Amino acid sequence: MIKFAFQIILLNMWKSNILIDLKHMYLNDLIPIYGKDESLQMLNILIGHYFGLSRVEQTLKSAYKLSESEMLKLHMAVKQLKKNKPLQYIIGETTFIDYKIKVNEGVLIPRPETEELVKLILDNENLSDLNILDIGTGSGCIAIALAANITNSHVYAMDISKKAIETAKQNANINNVNIQFIEDDINKPSSKISHNFDVIVSNPPYVRYLEKSQMKPNVLDYEPEIALFVDDHKPLKFYTAIMNFAKLFLNDGGRLYFEINEALADELRQSLLEYNYDKISIFKDINGKNRFVSAVKVE
Ligand code: GLN
Known about the structure:
alpha/beta, Rossmann fold, 2 domains, seven-stranded mixed β-sheet, two-stranded antiparallel ribbon, 13 helices, 11 strands, elongated, binds glutamine
């Protein structure tokens, strides 16, 4: 009897097009993979994104009836979440600090650590009249947040990937900031850059292949390898390429800001010393890991 009643409830659930029923059903599907809090948060975001319902509205309009196409959208999204696809790629956007950033599998999903990198720069720089270059801009998140917060800044953003440049351009437009984009490879730069920068910032690929086994499938299966990984034997390759570039294009007294692999802070400090940088500082991220480095160029 109990079994029978349960089946009827289940049948009704599947047949229901009522928001709260669907939410419960999908929550049960996702909890084994993501746990309760994250599953609920993801469903709230999906429902907000697809149906324009805020959290409060989702509670007040819990009897909201979804159309067939709406049900299908939600169903397909949950199906992708079950295959570890990041929510940000499913809905095609995320928020970085206060900025809406479009993302796709050609660019890394902006990380909270990188928000901290931007805050570090904004806390240490004068917030006007700076020439800035972001190397390996990806979605453009760093360049956009800097351009939006520094008045009269000239922000340039470089990436080797055409897809990344396209995405970053779109994001600059959405956020109403003016950025000059440069498609180039920092390891062998060929672009004609006609002036110098006060600040060069970069969050380059810094995960060594030897660390791959510690990474989660949502990252490994969906995020661009080119934005994440670096050769085990040359883990500072991008940083040295940037320091070589900076010999020509960073003003004396100009600042470098890097996001780094927490295991490589000392090695990078050493390298910066060899390149004659001054005031080398290492900063921890919110998890207490060595995550950022800043340094000042001397003549
Ligand atoms: N922090 C990123 C991660 O853990 C890596 C970012 C990078 O390589 N620049 O996936």
